[in-house]
C-alpha cells in the first residue's frame, strides 16, 4: 500500500480513509461506542491512517469518539473533519473549527472541509468569499493545514478556487453512483484536487449483504437511499450477480472488489465507514488489490447497468 498526496499539499493520505459518520450514531441503528473505537484503532493498525469525521455527525459525538480512539497515536493520523452548511458565516466557521479542535483533542486539523454548500438544508446563502476568508485565516493561524469542500458542483468548486486553494472534493461516488465523472472528475484532475469518495460501497449495497427482501430497522437512513427503491434495487441485484464471478476470480469479496475499482479511478481515494474491526480489515485489502484492465472494463459496463438509469441529482436519499 502506497500513500497518496492530498491535492497540492505535503500531506500524505491512505488510499482508503476511515469514515466515521456511523460513530456519531444519529441516523444509524445499533452503533456501540466501544466497537466504533475498536474499529478506528483497527484501521490505524492495518495502515488506514486517514480518518474523516464532521461536526454534524451526532453533533460532535463522532469527533469525540475519534479523539478517544486515537489518544496517544495522534502523530500516526491524518485528521479530516467538516463544518456544516449552517455554520458558514465568518465567525461561525471560526467557532465551529474551535469546537472541532476541542472535540478531537488536537491543536491542528489536517483537512477542514465545507460539508455542504451554503443554502443547502435550509441554511443561509453565505457568499463563498466570506467562508473562504475564514478558512484562509484558520490556515494561516495553523489551526488547519488544508481546505476541502464536499457536495459542491463544478461551478461551486471553481468559484471557491477564486478565493483560495482547495485540495480536496468529497462527493458521493461508487460503481453504482457516478455523477462525479461527467464534470467534476476532469476538473479535479486538471487542478490536482484529490477526490475523497464517500459512500464508495453505495452504503453497503456493493457488499452484497442487502439482497432481495432486506428491510432496514426503523431509524436507519439507508432505507431512504434511492438505490433501495424498487426499480433501481432490481437492477442493483442483477449487477451484483454479474460481479460475483469477477470477485471469485480475484479471490476477494464484492465489497473489496468495488473499492479496488474505485481506487483505480483518476485522482480518487475512498472514505469507507465501518462499525466493527472485521469490516475494517476487509476494507483495507482493497489498497493492495490490483485489477486487470479486462476486469475494470467489465465492471464499468456492469455498473452502468445501474447508473444509466439514475438522474443527475447528486443527493442519494429521498429525505
Describe the overall structure.
- The protein is α/β, with parallel strands linked by helices.
- The chain has a single domain (4-211, 254-290), classed as TIM Barrel.
- The chain has ten helices and ten strands.
- The protein has helices at residues 33-45, 61-69, 90-104, 128-140, 154-161, 184-191, 230-249, 254-263, 277-284, 293-307, and strands spanning 4-5, 12-13, 16-19, 50-52, 78-83, 111-114, 147-150, 168-170, 194-197, 268-273.
- A hairpin with a 6-residue loop joins β1 and β2.
- The longest helix has 20 residues, at 230-249.
- The chain is globular, with a radius of gyration of 19 Å.
Layout of secondary structure:
Blueprint: E1 4-5, E2 12-13, E3 16-19, H1 33-45, E4 50-52, H2 61-69, E5 78-83, H3 90-104, E6 111-114, H4 128-140, E7 147-150, H5 154-161, E8 168-170, H6 184-191, E9 194-197, H7 230-249, H8 254-263, E10 268-273, H9 277-284, H10 293-307
Parallel strand pairs: 3-4, 3-10, 4-5, 5-6, 6-7, 7-8, 8-9, 9-10
Antiparallel strand pairs: 1-2
Q: Could you write a compact summary of the structure shown?
A:
The protein has 319 residues and is of the alpha/beta class. Helices cover 37% and strands 12% of the residues.
